[in-house]
Amino acid sequence: MSEPAVVVGPGRARPGDPAPPERAPRRRRVPLGSRLRRDWQLLAMVTPGFVVLLVFSYLPIAGNVIAFQDYNPYLGDSPWAAFAHSNWIGFGQFQLLFDDPAFWDAFRNTLAITAFQLVFFFPLPILLAVMLHNLLSSRLRGFVQTVVYLPHFFSWVLVVSFFVAMLGGAGLLAQTMRDAGMQPWHVMTNPDTFIVLVTAEAVWKDVGWGTIVFLAALSTIDQHLYEAAAADGAGRWRRLWHITLPGLRPVIVLLLILRLGDALSVGFEQFLLQRDAVGRQVAEVLDTFVYHFSIATGNYGYGAAAGLFKAVVGLVLILAANRVAHLLGERGIYSK
After folding, report:
1. pLDDT at residue 210 tops 60
2. Quick check: 19 pLDDT over 90?
3. Residues 208, 213, 219, CA angle at the centre, nearest 5°?
């Protein structure tokens, strides 16, 4: 005789079924007041930086509203009154901006310089960091780091003056070539080589400073991996390819994404100082365009439209690059 069927309800377990996993106890939420009293030292430490970031980075975002106005700062006794009395023109400033050939010249120059520096400048701090990391003498490493870090603290006026003294028409290179009976090169005033010149200046100034992050990442790689690879017969290049570069890859991806987000900002002082020497057609970038066509002329809404365009393009580039990083298995600058 068969056993009677056992009717099991939706909330009842069958005999022999595994027990449901126990739920982890919910963490007790610490009250806000307790957390403030507990972490007040850390909060006090970050407060000055937060205030600077708020005042100089986040509050000015509200000023982007003038990109949609025919803004006149003289319409009121205060900036708020000028906002209130300026006429709203919608996307009129953007239409003028996109119809301006000078804007597109600056846009193309900015993208060309960014692409050139991504290829010929971005890898150099990685290479220099690997070379410094492999130096056995700590004193020699510290001396080289000091020497290559020092130009970062020079102003662009000093950097450009140094290059003029070395490569200018009356500089050391030109005088040496004249003494040798050769025709001197016009390096500082040649529009065809301007992109190489500004990249060389950026390399001399910032390549050492850019190694700091990569040296920090190299210090986190387990040295036992190198020892094990050497014991297995891996040479220096194999250890570099299979241990060093994979250890640097997350940092490289992160900095590359951030650089792409800042692709339309290649600098201001460096190009402003050399714009007249080579001409606006090759030296005008978006930052100098905003200065000459907006701030210098008093058309602040026009410059705000150009700045807002830069910000939107940078945001799109960051999101796209971060999405590509996720598809390639990297974390990027944020993860879901």
Report:
1. yes
2. no
3. 110
The pLDDT of residue 1 is 46
pLDDT of residue 327: 85
**Which distant-in-sequence residues (6+ apart) come within 8 Å of 314 by Cβ?**
261, 262, 263, 264, 265
Q: Closest Cα to residue 107, out of 300, 309, 332?
A: 309
Those residues whose C-beta lies under 8 Å from the C-beta of residue 170, and which sit 6 or more positions away, are none
Structure-token pair, residue 124: 């150099």
CB 287 within 8 A of CB 267: yes
- State which H helix or E strand residue 69 sits in: strand 69-70
**Confidence at residue 205, expressed as pLDDT on a 0 to 100 scale:** 94
Q: Which residue has the higher pLDDT, 23 or 107?
A: 107
From the list 54, 34, 57, the residue with the least C-alpha distance to 46 is 54
Burial class (CB in 10 A: 0-12, 13-18, 19+), 326: middle
Q: How far is CA 2 from CA 5, 6, 28, 248, in A?
A: 9, 12, 52, 68
CA–CA dist 224, 282 (Å, integer): 51
Residues 6 or more apart in contact with residue 194 via CB below 8 angstroms: 274, 278, 282, 283
CB neighbours (10 Å) of residue 72? Answer: 16
**Alpha-helical runs (H) found in 150-244:** 156-167, 172-179, 194-206, 211-219, 223-231, 236-239
How many Å apart are CA 16 and CA 6, to the nearest integer? 13
At residue 31, what is the residue type? Answer: P
Q: How many residues does the chain have?
A: 336
Q: Decide if 198 contacts 274 (C-beta within 8 A).
A: yes
Global pTM exceeds 0.85:
no
Look-up of token digits 């003294």: 165
